[in-house]
Amino acid sequence: MEAHLGSPDRNLALELVRTTEAAALASARMVGRGDKIGADQAAVDAMRHVLSTVRMDGLVVIGEGEKDEAPMLYNGEHIGNGEPPEVDIAVDPLEGTTLAAKGMPSALAVIAMAERGTMFDPGPCVYMEKMAGAEDIADLLDLDRPVPKTLELIAERRGVDIGDVMVVMLERERHDETLQAIRDAGARVRLIAHGDVSAAMLAVSDRSAVDILWGIGGTPEGVISAAAIKCLGGGLVGKLWPRDDEERQAAIDGGYDLDRQLTQDDLIRSDDAFFAATGVTDGDVLQGVRYRGHRAATTESLVMRSRSGTVRRILATHDRTKLRELASERYG
Fold first, then answer.
1. Which residue among 9, 11, 77, 258 has the highest number of C-beta atoms inside a 10 angstrom radius?
2. How confident is the model at residue 45 (pLDDT cuts 50, 70, 90)?
3. Which strands sit side by side in the sheet containing 127-133, from one edge to the other?
4. Model confidence at 69: pLDDT above 90
């Protein structure tokens, strides 16, 4: 069945992957150079340039920050050529700025899209406690239950020992107590420095050794992960995690329920969501940008749509000389 007038068109999927390819190609020139701000800016510039040509009336719900701190791709910015459909956009032009700056694995350029008014706006809440896993254990995800107990239930469901269960989580001091409890329960842990969108995708993939994602990470990344999971299958639950009393009060004043567990369907209230990602550095999910002589570069991307359940993996070759002619030195 075709989408009704004003809904996102399936052709937008390939338009979106053009934006992540552009961001990846631009930021890849900064990999390992120790300049995470420069790498992020290169990705933002390139993604913004391509997004401005896409046929849509896009509203940035999850962006680079408020307008006064982010001159491009800021929260509330309208993007695209202004024609229908009206859509919400979530962007992370470079997920893992530190990863790229240090030449570490799993830096990605990502974007998500859904019908206008269906994407969760986190308001003042920068962080969210998250848990994600594949479809067969989605009903077991519960942030009000101790994590070790959930891991026991996963092991039981899958008919394995808890020592076979692998948790992926950000290496942060705020996780130390739960990390020790997980280890004491006998489960295995994979600690990552950054990049919990790619980690959420690992948790729901049947090609991964990871069974579950847990941890307190960025709320914007939670919304983007929800779009990916709606396309891939699986489950995600999240609970807003104010950093201090001031942020907590601002969230309460804004009408947010801090005790509520939000699912992927709460974070993306549409059955027609799109997600695209392109690797910047090599990782478990995607290969990073690779150069083939002076002229050519290759990218690997995922582009997905929840309505059809289609997941495309795209390996593209780009002529850097022609890209530079089209967009100055943006692509290096």
1. 77
2. very high
3. 188-192, 166-170, 212-218, 127-133, 235-240, 262-263
4. no
**H helices then E strands: how many in the chain?**
10, 14
Q: Centre a 10 Å sphere on the Cβ of residue 313 and count the other Cβ atoms it contains.
A: 11
SS (H, E, C) 209-275: CCCEEEEEEEHHHHHHHHHHHHHHCCEEEEEECCCCHHHHHHHHHCCCCCCCCEEHHHHECCCCCEE
Q: What is the pLDDT of residues 121-148, one digit of tens each?
A: 999 999 999 999 999 999 999 999 999 9
Characterise 23 by phi-psi region: left (phi > 0), alpha (psi -120 to 50), beta (else).
alpha
SS3 179: helix
Measuring CA to CA, how many Å separate 110 from each of 71, 107, 227?
19, 10, 11
CA distance 77 to 61: 8
pTM: 0.92
pLDDT value for 207? 85
Q: 270 and 264 in contact (C-beta within 8 Å)? A: no
* Mean pLDDT computed over 306-321: 92
Measured distance CA(96)–CA(301) in Å, rounded: 16
**324: amino acid identity, one letter:** R
How many Å apart are CA 2 and CA 4, to the nearest integer? 6
Residues 305/218/70/282 CA torsion (nearest 10 deg): -60
Angle at 32 between CA 27 and CA 37, to 5 degrees: 50
DSSP-assigned letters across all residues of 32-94: TSS-HHHHHHHHHHHHHHHHTTSSSEEEEEE-SS-TTT-SSS-TT-EESSSPSPEEEEEEEEE
Inform me whether the pLDDT recorded for 1 exceeds 50. no
- 183 phi/psi in degrees, rounded to 5: -65, -40
Q: Do 165 and 212 form a contact (C-beta atoms < 8 A)?
A: yes
Look at residue 66 in the predicted model and tell me its pLDDT: 81
Q: What average pLDDT score do residues 61-75 get?
A: 85
